[in-house]
Amino acid sequence: MLNIHDTLTNYASAYQGALTIKKEAEKVAGEKYIGIAYAEEMGKIKDAFHAVIDPLRDTSMKIVQKAITDARKDIQDVVSKPMDTDLAHTIDIVSKLPNVTLTEKESVFERCAGNYIATRLCIDALKLEGEHLPPKVDEILKSLDLLEPAINTFFNSSAFDNMNASYMTLLVLNGSYTNSIISEVTVFVDTYK
Predict the structure, then answer these.
(1) Neighbours of 63 (CB within 10 A)
(2) pTM reported for the whole predicted model
């Protein structure tokens, strides 16, 4: 899965570089021009800044949105992956046996590896708990749902320095928040694909 954080930090770095150049140009314009000439020069500087930043922001946003869309699709693929009917039959039979031992349950459970539905069915049917429980799909999707607006706030922020940036911008830029969600998705998909 794409490293979303790299895309975000690359964009923030490019934004900061362009902003530094813009501020320097504005300083020079302030020393060199007055009145209408100053206003025209400031307009040119602003236009040049946006000519660089806007396409980069749009491209970066598309890359990140695609990564999130792909993550959702990967999760959906995992959840909808069909299971072996023989395994379903075995789980059903074992769940109806009296006094099934933990070893017997574990043996059936091991056959479920790599299939989310089989894993869930086995856990429910054989009443397994603890380390067997996979993460809940809805919780992973909710994390992605929370990440999207945070990233949109990041891209719509006008500054990335610690003095002017919003909390969400700093949270996304820090990386631990974004990376923890992407890691959760990656582990889930890799476990059950």
Answers:
(1) 16
(2) 0.83
Q: What are the CB-based long-range contacts (under 8 Å, 24+) for 187-191?
A: 188/75, 188/78, 188/134, 188/135, 188/137, 188/140, 189/1, 189/71, 189/74, 189/75, 189/78, 191/114, 191/134
Q: Among candidates 118, 137, 138, which has minimal Cα distance to 128?
A: 118
Tokens of 124: 């429910």
Q: Which residues have CB under 8 Å from 24's CB, separation 6+?
A: none
φ/ψ (deg, to 5) at 158? -95, -5
Question: Rounded to an integer, what is the distance from CA 6 to the centroid of its chain?
Answer: 12
Lowest mean pLDDT among 30-39, 102-111, 150-159: 150-159
